[in-house]
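Example 3.2
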Amino acid sequence: MWSWIHQLVADQSLRSKMMLATVVCIVVPVCTTLIIYTFQTREAVKEQAVANAERELQLTEAYVSKLLEDMLYIANFVQMDSEINTILKGKENTRNSPQQTEDTYEAFIDDSKVRKTMDNITLVGEKSYVTILLTSGQAYANYSTSEYDPVTMFQERWFHQLRDVYGFESYWIGSHPTVFKSEKKGNPYQISVARTLRDGSSNIYGYVVVSLDENQFSKIFENVAANEEMMLVDASHQIISHKDDDRIGETLSYLKGRPRNEASTIVRISDEDYLVSRRSIPFVDWQLVSLTPYKQAVSDIHSIFHKVFMAELVLFVAFLFILAYFLRVIVQPIVHLGSVADAVQQGDLTVRSRIKGKDEIGRLAESFDLMLDRINAMIRDITETQERKRKAELAMLQAQINPHFLFNALNSIRMKVMRKGDIESSEMISSLSKLLRMTIDQGRETIPFRKEIDIAKDYIHLMNMRRSTEVQLDIHVSTDAYLEEIPRFILQPIIENSIIHGFSQDGGTISLDAYVEEDVFVIQIEDNGRGMSRKKLEHVQESLIADTATAEGDGERKGFSNIGLSNVFERMRMTFGTAFRMRLESKEGQGTKVIMFIPRR
């Protein structure tokens, strides 16, 4: 038989022999490999389906955890805020001591502080309902009591369990019917967390309850894949949140008896296999559960594998015919490019490949040459940037005259002044201490814009203490702008210019506007001071471009709080690059406006 095959092959033409050799040596092994690979990838298909489900679950868990963390943040704030707790304890002490009479005006001020704080901590994030309930029956809430009387919480079935909650322990209340009349139709369920407020003797003097509409969670589940069902369940496997309200309270019997740490498994439900994946919420004994029909989970992957296999087979055959032709064309430029790379490795950055062409090798060579040009340019830019950074850091260091010593000394002075009852001087020293703290803290190059606003407030508060007429700061900042990261002490130098040069010894108003516009973060600082002449404005703008340290003119004073526009401009350029822009607008007698356009990272 072998002799017959040998004779059959020998009688064929060279072209036929090559084709036969190609079929025998390439096509047959490839087809055999694909068949073997198909059988071997069955388990890989399952693992990929599990990985996809767990990845979707992980993403959803991040959103759910964020909502729960926001609820904990509000509870933590109420529990840890010393001013609120002092007021609340005072309410209880007044109730327990009939001899003491609380001034009506002071009581009104205290109540206003508590309610204002509750409103402030719920401004960011999803709409939440906060209730502070004292054992005396007095209650504070950030919602209308005509919708729901918070005192009725004492009658809830879960309320007596709060007596066993201590410290930062939280009692999580799963989905329960909405207590607000106007919300019952659109949001039939709520999810709540409760904590106790205890005094130094661990006696309960109040409770804090934070609630969130259940539909805030179910909206997250609506964004998952169409063939996937996702839900939030408690420790007893009861559904807490589901995109279908009718499913809430249902028990998932197929989870009973299975380990809680079991991430993914295939379960038989109603004569059909389902891929069940679970993920625990870190700080509460709840889990996210996803349910996907197994056939649908792997069908797309099977289709992808099939298409990939066919594409590989077609491309492999095509490359086989063109390989010989392109081999010589490809190899020669690559060898030359390799020699150029060796020269670069030896440190010669002046060498270039000079290879021209529109194919991949030509583009690679062109990119390689452009990369070398860019490296040389970056070396020059880095050298110049380091020099500018050194100068800017030197200016900052010159302004920081032993801030650690000053900060500690100021804190000691503040405590003595406070003990003597001079609250106004104590607040002034406190504001100065906060500004000094920011100079000491070198752990991060940038801070959230919210903290930068706090620095500006403290600075204006400090300046108003020493002036006969006060300067007002009018803040208009969008919610997402508070989270933007910027270098420290960016607003203070600009505000200082407005106070010293714009207002002189008079009062005035400084408007601070900040908002996010697509990929640009815009900050506007405008005062209604005396402004600048056109010649003076041009001088300041030229100083910024010329990278000088005297952009504010001959009147600039070096010190802790006056770094200057040029310093701000340089630091922003070093942080955000040339995409950062600063624009100055001013008219004599009408005030000055500084606008910064910061590229978002």
